[in-house]
Structure formats: C-alpha cells, structure tokens
Design a protein that fits this description.
The complex is a heterodimer of chains A (about 450) and B (about 500). With about 450 residues, chain A is α/β, with parallel strands linked by helices. In chain A, about 40% of the residues lie in helices and about 15% in strands. In chain A, the strands form 5 sheets. A 7-stranded mixed sheet of chain A has the order 2-10-9-8-7-3-4, sandwiched between helices. Chain A has a 4-stranded antiparallel sheet with strand order 13-14-17-16, with helices on one face. By secondary structure, chain B is an alpha/beta fold. The longest helix of chain B has about 40 residues, at about 345-380. Chain B is globular. Chain B starts with about 35 loop residues before the first helix and ends in a 9-residue tail after the last helix. The chains are: A alpha/beta (about 450), B alpha/beta (about 500). At the A-B interface, α1, α2, α3, α4 and α5 of A face α2, α3, α4, α5 and α6 of B.
C-alpha cells in the first residue's frame, strides 16, 4: 500500500472475492506471460514525504534563480512580479484539480474564467476571437501557421528573422510535415524587411516587439500580406501591448504569443500558456478550446465549450488541430493577473518598463566598447553589440552577481557579440546601475586583455 | 438537491464588476528620469486607448474568483471516474516543491552550469521514464499527450526519410482517441482506420490487409480505450514491423501497467506519457500537462533538440564529476516542438511522485487501479446495473471499462447523457460518455487506484438508484441536473451564434 492508495489487505481480499478471482495477478492474465515483467523496475524504494521534499529542495538549491542574482535575462520569458493573489486562487483545488470542462453544469467556474480570459486577450490584441489557450508561445506560432495552411492559398510561409528563434524552429519542424516551405525575411536596421511576396505565400509572420526588442511596423507587414491574399500573423508579447497599437488595429489576422508574462512563473520554461486570437472570419479554423456564452433550461446565463466540431474529439482526422489538454490553469493565472493590473495599471506598468528600459539602454550604450545593435524604438528589451567576447563579459558580470542578459551569437551568428538585455518592473534603477558598472568594467577588462595579448 | 456546489446566484463577470477608478495594482515608483512618451515611442506606434481591462480592487478579485471556484466540481471534493483521463489524487507536497524559488524562478535560458539542479532532475526523470517504458531514450519536450503524439509521428517521418522512404499512411484503430487521427493529419499523413474484433482486440485480419509498404506507423493504445489489453500485441508488432512501419504507443492508459509490463518489451518504438494522467500533475481544468516521449535506439537520432544529457568529466565551472547539459548538436533531429525545455514545473511534480512511490509503489498503483476497476464492474453487476448497461466486452478489464447504455435507452427511456447528468445531482463527476465511438451509448469508467472500496460501493449503488428512479419516472433523469449552479445548457445555440467574448461599452 502506498500513501496515495487506500486498499488494505482486507479490502483486496474482499474485492478479489467479489470479482471472482483468486489473486491480483489473475487480473493481468490477458497479458502474454512472456511480456510480464518478472523483476521490479530499477527505480529504487519509495521515500517518505519529507525525504522527497529534501531531495527536491537540494536540486532547487543547485540552481541560480532570479532570486539569487540580478538577472537581465529575457528572450521570450521575463522575470515579472507575480502577485500573491494569483497563487492563492490557482491553488484552490476547484481550479487546480478538475479535468477539461466536459460537463458544463458543474464547471461554470472554469468556463466563465475562460470566457473572461478570452475577453481580456481580445482586448489586448484588438481581435474579436480568442481561444482558451494553447501550450506556449512558439508552438502557438506554428499553430497559426497551420491555420494559414488550412485557409488555403499558397504553400509558402514567410517568417521574419525577428521572430523568436524557437518559434521559427518549431514552425520549421511542423511545416516539414505539412509539406510547406518556410522562407525567412531578413532584418534590416533591427526590423523586418519583407521580400517581394507572390501568390505562393499563404502567411506572413512577424513578431511584436521582435526578438531584438525592436517595435515593428505591423501595419505595413499586414498590408503587404493582404496584397497577395496571405494572412498576416503576429507573434506578440502581451505586456508591451499595453502601449503599442494592437495587432487587430494594424490589420493583423491572427495574433499569438507566449503568455508567461501574464502572472505565470518562469518555471525554467514552463508550464506557461500560449494565446491565440483571430478575426471573426477565422473562427471556425481556430485550434483548441473556446468557451462561449449561452443559456440554461431556466434561462440563466451559462458558459460551454463551443464550436467543438473544430476539435479532435468530434472531428478526428478533419479537426483544425490535435490539441486536447492545453494550459487552462496558466490562462486562469493570466486573466487574474490582467484583472489585477487593470485598465490603468497595465499602462502604468508599460510606461515604467519603457522608461527604465530607455534609461538602461542609454546608460549602457554610452559605455566604451558598447553600442546599440539597432536604434529602433523598444519597450522592455534591447540589443547591444559589444566590442569584446560576449561570453567572457557575461562571466565577468556574473562574478559580481549580475546576469547581464542573453548572448545572441547562437541564434544570430551575424551578431557574434550581441547581448539582449531585458528590463522588467522588478529591475530597479539601482540594479540597472550595477549592470552598467559591471558591464562597463567587464568590457574594459576584456578589451584590455585583448590589447595585452595582441 | 444542491449537494456539492454552493448555490451561487448567477455570477457577474469580472468585467461586469469593473468600476472606473478601482485598482489592485500599485506600480513601483519611477526611479529613473521621467521622459516624454513621444520621445521613446512615436505616436504612430502607440495605441490610442488602453485595453479595457477590468478596474477592480484586490478584495473584489479574490472574492470573484473564489465564488467562481465554487461553481466547479473538483477531484479533491468528490469521485471523478472520467474514463481515459486518470483522475487520481494530486499529492499536496508537489505544489510546495514546485513553488520553491530555485525551481519556479529559474529562467529557462539560465546557462547549464547555473541550472544543474533542474537539468539533473530532468535527466533523472528521463531515466525513470525510460525504465518504465522499457525504451532507452526519452525527450521531455512535448507539452501534452497530443503534442507527444505529434512528436512521435514526426519522428516516424524522419526515420523513414532518413532511409530514403516516403510513406503516406498511418493506421489507427477505430477505438482510438480523437487526438490520434487529428495528429496524423497534422503531421501530413493519411489516416487509415483498423477495425476491432468481437473480443475488443484489434482485428488482426483487417490489420494484415491494411499494413502495406505505404504505411508509416500504427498508433495504438494498450490497454485500449475499451480498457482491454491487446492480447495479440506481439503479433501486431510483428505485422507492423514486417512492413517496415513503426509502432506508436499512446500512453493515456499507462496507469494500468506500470511495473507490470512495458511498451518497449511489447515491440513499441515510440511511447508518449501523460504526466498529468499517470504521474499526478493536476489537470488544472484543461492543462497544463506534459507529454514526454520514450523511443528505441533506431529512433533516437531524430529526437527533438535540445536533449538533456549527462556528461562525464569536469563541468564548466571546474567542478569534477558528471554534469548535466543541453545537447543541441543533433544533426538528424526533427527540431524543436516548442520553446525552451518543456513544462519543467510538471517534471518537478512527476519526479517527486516517482521518488515517493519507487518501484514497488508504482506497480502497486497499477495493480490497485486494475483491482478497483474490476471490483467496480463486479459491484455494478451485483447491483443489477449491467442488466440495462451491459459491459461492451465480457472480459476482465484493466484500469477502466466500457458499458453500453443502448439497452437502457430502449428499456428505460433514458440515454447515457441523462444518466451522466443525473449523476451530477449525486455529487459524482460522470464517467466519459459517448466514447469509444464503436460502443453505442458508451460510458467509459475509470476509478483509479486512489479511490476507496467504500467510494466504489457508493457509486455502484448510486447508478442502481438512478436506474430504479428511471424505471418509475424517466423524466427525472431527462431533466437532470437540478442541484447544479446552472441546468442543462443550450450548446446548439452557443455554436450557432458564437459569443466568445464579452462586449464592452
């Protein structure tokens, strides 16, 4: 008996008798004897609760978290503050432990929360339709690409080099299965430069702000896509949308993105959620769950999962996606967080990030051997080019308890010493000043070392 | 009648609770020089109006969502025998561990030398899952079962392409989860359905006829969605491998066989796990989950990247001994399926579960899951329920079983849906209904190992009671539920005129 099961020896005996078999082994008699495992799994013995806690605490301590250093890492996930009320609500068993709401009469809490979430995402993106969540950001980009494929037209997906490298790679992985071609549009001066588009293009995908932090001209990208009958798809970071023209306003057909910044923890990359919003025209091609409003027998307002004929459990091989379990709890955290920020708070947060980011960008790019990688407007993140080996510079900064950001070289070989710096509301001026000092000294030291060895 | 959910009145939405000027958020103070917005972000790029998010105070938000929560039925409150979903207890320890800052505030791009704990945890989870599956290599990347399926079919494609083969079809049994055929289409293959024989097994003659050189893969759930072990699994593997196809294991039903037998030993090439089913990640009302995959040697080169690896020798920071790393150098990889390294928070919980149970405990889980299912079936028979709701296949079941409500519909005038809705009034989450598709008026019941004998007894008695009631007055079940916050909802109207967001003034 484990601590999570209750069948005592007496229970087992009584139950076997009721079933009419002599042993538990007999219940497995359909399994061919040759396939039965005759040894215990090599997993060791079970542990007590406190032993498990200690082991996992030790593993946690072997990580350097954003509580252990001053971190300017971003590049897709950001160290925003998660208010306590998010934890308190999402840990309620009524939200934490149910399955997908297949029985709406006893799932109104979850379904209404989805409906509220969809409303909030629709407001942020300026698009009338939102689903109830996808897995996370990059796979949501690929999901949008699949909708473009289903919508017909050309066999080519054009994706900007300013889209997160993980999103580009995920799209490429899936598009290979669809037999579609993915063409990359280059960056020029930090922003997307679309090639001439032809009728073979079914979607144009850009990111707002892009991976290098630059704010893109979404309207131009959408217009270019529409001119050749392609869909305009935008991968967007939801918090900067507090300030930026919404994708919908810019003519974008599908807005997707990573929802982690909305009340979700970093969690070493997940679970978070992906969001998906679209025009009304695309509603029957949207992947995943959608909550809709309706009435019950007595005329009371209620909510159900709707348009289910899009989905795998009804439509099977003709479904618009295979997604089943998504990220409902993370999306719930998202709508709680957006309610916490509120209509004015989200703008205040956005402006604070904007101003601190501007401060950090200016101070850092004044340093010797450091310059802006591009001069485009930015909101929360910006790219620098260092006149020193970036990996060494990072190491020197870390020795002073500062993680200065993400080295761009792996994803952008054209910027071998590029550094991407993110400024959330958790990074204070004092911390930014520490970064300036640390980075300045690190770059100077590396340049000095290069001179000496030369 | 209002048995398990507080009878909250019609709930306003959070947007309807909004009043101009209320707030919960107070921004940290501006500690850098103030700047004109136009200077930082040209007006043409800025939105004219902020998004119309609700304006509410903290107490209102808390009360709103607490009240909403009371309109949900949940596993911590009552029996939830939702077939194929494995609604087992979610240990409370896991939430405490997952919330440790070293786990939950770890940035996904933290470099490996500073994320050794996380990478070690992932590596150890990979090892444990490999042992449970009986296959040597694991990728934790996929985000849910259906994502694992997609990974599996794309791996199959890469495997065949690497051998210069182009195959067009994937076989799925007619009992398969809807995600299987949907995955096949998304991966660019054509679905070919394989029939089920009269014992509930894959029809081997049909399989032989359809297993051609053009077939890339057979996706199979074992035990099947009928809750039955495929007795011909060895022959199935032989047929599938005989035409050069791969055999894919849908792990939705793994809870029946952990430590008892292993998909790898059965001949499966690729396995997905649902960590939110067998390994206790809370379902969250529709996620998050995680869908790691285990694969055989011949599939390994194609696994998604990056892969968590243990390397021997000196670590980057100069420490001796093995260290953990992310391996991107995988030239044959299918590539990424998502951002970063997967749903790490889920890995923490599932690894804690495996540590808690160990080898003996995991096997006990499966044994009791199967014992509970067979016992519940026996109790339902003893209560006379099977006279109206016969078992679809008269065999010992594994961790779940399927009843057919067709006789009930004919004899008592209530449908499986009515029975399900009436169960709501008794404080029980109904089983899965109308799945698998091949069973008329299907009811798929999975009690899981964490339920007591008393709970199973009570459920059997409740179903019997509903049938007795229906014999006297079927209208009661047809109109159910009565004690829930809302009654039956008009789903057809919702789909005809979809209202998927709240209009705001």
């Amino acid at each position: 008996m484990t601590r999570y099961t209750s069948a005592t020896d007496a229970d087992r005996e009584a139950m076997l008798r009721e079933i009419g078999v002599g042993s538990i082994d007999e219940l497995f008699s359909d399994i061919p004897p040759r396939l039965r495992l005759t040894r215990p799994l090599a997993l060791g013995a079970g542990l007590s609760e406190q032993e498990v806690y200690e082991r996992l605490r030790a593993l946690a301590q072997a990580n350097t978290s954003t509580e252990d250093e001053v971190s300017f890492l971003g590049a897709g996930m950001y160290d925003h503050y998660v208010p306590a009320l998010v934890d308190s609500i999402v840990l309620r068993s009524e939200f934490l432990t149910p399955y997908t709401p297949y029985q709406p009469e006893i799932s109104q809490g979850g379904l209404q929360a989805m409906f509220e979430y969809q409303t909030a995402i629709s407001e942020l993106t300026g698009l009338p339709v939102s689903n109830a969540s996808l897995y996370e950001g990059p796979s949501a980009v690929a999901a949008a690409g699949y909708v473009a494929k289903l919508a017909g037209g050309g066999r080519t997906l054009v994706i900007s080099r300013g889209v997160h490298p993980h999103s580009r790679e995920t799209l490429a992985t899936l598009a290979h299965g669809w037999g579609m071609e993915v063409v990359e549009a280059p960056l020029r001066g930090g922003v997307t430069e679309l090639p001439r588009l032809g009728s073979e293009v079914c979607a144009v995908i850009v990111q707002q702000p892009n991976f290098l932090g630059a704010v893109e001209d979404l309207e131009a990208a959408a217009a270019a896509a529409h001119e050749v009958g392609a869909l305009a798809i935008c991968a967007c970071d939801p918090l900067p949308l507090a300030l930026l023209r919404s994708p919908g306003e810019c003519g974008v057909d599908i807005a997707v993105g990573e929802g982690q910044t909305l009340g979700n923890r970093l969690d070493f990359g997940g679970p978070s959620f992906g969001f998906f919003a679209s025009t009304r025209e695309l509603i029957r091609r949207v992947p995943g769950r959608i909550a809709g409003e309706t009435r019950d027998l007595d005329g009371r307002r209620g909510f159900v999962l709707t348009l289910q004929t899009r989905e795998q459990h009804i439509r099977r091989e003709r479904a618009t996606s295979n997604i089943c379990t998504a990220q409902a709890l993370n999306a719930l955290a998202g709508v709680i967080y957006l309610s916490w920020l509120g209509r004015r708070g989200i703008v205040e947060l956005g402006e604070l990030m904007l101003k601190r980011t501007a401060y950090a960008r200016e101070r850092l790019s004044e340093l010797d051997g450091v310059r802006q990688l591009h001069a485009q407007p930015v909101v929360r993140e910006f790219a620098l080019a260092l006149d020193a080996p970036v990996e060494h510079v990072i190491e020197r900064c870390r020795a002073r308890g500062v993680n200065p950001g993400y080295a761009l070289g792996r994803d952008y070989p054209e910027h071998p010493d590029g550094l991407l710096v993110a400024i959330t509301e958790q990074r204070t001026r004092e911390q930014i000043d520490r970064l300036v000092d640390a980075l300045g000294e690190a770059v100077a030291a590396e340049r000095h070392r290069a001179e000496v060895t030369a | 009648m209002r048995s398990f959910i507080a009878a909250a009145d019609d709930e306003l939405t959070i947007f309807e609770r909004s009043r101009p000027g209320r707030r919960a958020f107070v921004a940290p103070k501006l500690d850098v020089p103030d700047r004109d917005l136009d200077e930082l972000l040209p007006a043409r790029l800025r939105r004219a109006e902020p998004p119309r998010l609700p304006e509410v105070s903290e107490p209102e938000i808390v009360r709103h969502y607490n009240r909403l929560s009371k309109r949900n039925f949940d596993l911590d409150t009552g029996f939830y025998p939702l077939g194929s979903c494995t609604m087992k207890h979610n240990p409370k320890l896991h939430e405490r561990i997952a919330a440790l800052p070293g786990h939950c505030r770890l940035h996904p791009l933290q470099d490996p030398p500073h994320a050794q704990g996380a990478l070690e945890l992932m590596w150890r989870l990979q090892e444990a899952l490999a042992e449970i599956a009986g296959l040597p290599h694991v990728s934790l990347q996929p985000s849910a079962g259906s994502h694992g399926e997609l990974a599996g079919v794309l791996l199959t494609r890469a495997f065949h392409e690497d051998r210069g083969e182009a195959r067009a079809k994937v076989l799925t049994p007619d009992t398969a989860h809807g995600t299987n055929p949907a995955t096949v289409t998304m991966a660019g293959y054509e679905v070919v359905k394989v029939g089920t024989d009269r014992h509930g097994n894959v029809d081997l003659d049909d399989l032989r006829a359809k297993a051609t050189e053009d077939v890339a893969c057979l996706m199979l759930t074992n035990p099947s969605t009928l809750g039955l072990f495929e007795t011909g699994i060895e022959e199935i593997a032989e047929i599938v491998h005989g035409v050069g196809a791969t055999l894919y294991y849908d792990g939705a039903n793994l809870n029946a066989i952990m430590g008892v037998c292993r998909p790898g030993d059965m001949g499966f090439d690729i396995v997905h796990f649902n960590l939110h089913k067998s390994f206790t990640q809370p379902h969250g009302g529709g996620g998050p989950g995680a869908g790691p995959i285990a694969v055989s040697e011949r599939i390994e080169p194609f696994l998604p990247r990056p892969q968590v690896v243990r390397r021997e020798g000196a670590a980057g920071d100069g420490a001796a001994g093995p260290y953990y790393d992310l391996d991107y150098d995988r030239p044959k990889s299918i590539g990424r399926l998502r951002g970063f390294q997967g749903n790490y928070g889920v890995f923490v919980r599932s690894y804690a579960y495996i540590l808690s149970l160990g080898a003996v405990g995991l096997r006990d889980v499966s044994e009791v899951a199967v014992l509970n299912a067979n016992y519940l079936l026996a109790r339902l028979r003893a209560e006379g329920v099977l006279e109206h709701l016969p078992a679809a296949y008269d065999r010992l079941c594994m961790h779940e079983f399927v009843l057919s409500g067709a006789p009930m519909r004919r004899e008592l005038g209530i449908r499986t849906l009515d029975l399900a809705k009436r169960l709501l009034d008794h404080g029980v989450h109904p089983p899965t209904v109308y799945f698998p598709l091949i069973v008329d008026e299907a009811l798929l019941i999975e009690p899981t190992e964490t339920e007591t004998k008393e709970t199973l007894d009570a459920f059997a008695a409740t179903v019997a009671e509903i049938l007795r009631e229906a014999r006297e007055d079927p209208e009661i079940a047809r109109g159910a539920p009565y004690g829930t916050p809302v009654r039956r909802l008009d789903e057809a109207a919702a789909a005809r005129h979809p209202v998927v967001r709240q209009p705001l003034g």
